[in-house]
């Protein structure tokens, strides 16, 4: 997973981005089903999924979206960032065994309230499978180090 990186509001610049690549395993999907309670058989049963248009098991859409959260909470902006909102547009399925590339990019910085608007995209084999936009509150240097904010 990503190594923690702490960026303060003052460190951010429009155009900055971070990328995470995650291989989607069966155990990831089963674990997400356990945590979320979403046990839809399209995610868990190869027999069931074979009769769907996808022909195989697919990952939960919100599992894929959670990879965006991993980037926001660990790298850009990192520890101390607070999610305010997230839009999600699901464009294609993510299958077990896919490698998802997640890219988060700073699109706008709002001095008032120390907020950042970030574009978010997930792709598999060059195809966008999910995109959207996040709004986060970012700590400033005057707020102290992340350990003092806990």
From TrEMBL:
Residues 21-115 form the MaoC-like domain. It comes from the Bacteria. This is 3-hydroxybutyryl-CoA dehydratase. It comes from Roseibium denhamense. The lineage of its organism: Bacteria, Pseudomonadati, Pseudomonadota, Alphaproteobacteria, Hyphomicrobiales.
């Amino acid at each position: 997973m990503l190594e923690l990186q702490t960026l303060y509001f003052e460190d951010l610049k429009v155009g900055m981005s971070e990328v995470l690549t995650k291989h989607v395993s069966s155990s990831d999907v089963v674990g997400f089903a356990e945590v979320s309670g979403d046990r839809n058989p399209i995610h868990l049963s190869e027999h069931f999924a074979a009769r769907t248009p996808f022909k195989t098991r697919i990952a939960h859409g919100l599992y894929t979206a959670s990879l965006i959260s991993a980037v926001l909470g660990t790298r850009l902006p990192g520890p101390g960032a607070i999610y305010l909102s997230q839009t999600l547009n699901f464009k294609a399925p993510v299958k077990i065994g896919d490698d998802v590339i997640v890219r988060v990019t700073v699109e706008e910085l709002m001095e008032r309230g120390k907020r950042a608007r970030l574009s978010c995209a997930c792709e598999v084999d060059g195809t966008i499978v999910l995109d959207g936009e996040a709004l986060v509150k970012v700590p400033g240097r005057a707020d102290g180090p992340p350990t003092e904010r806990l």
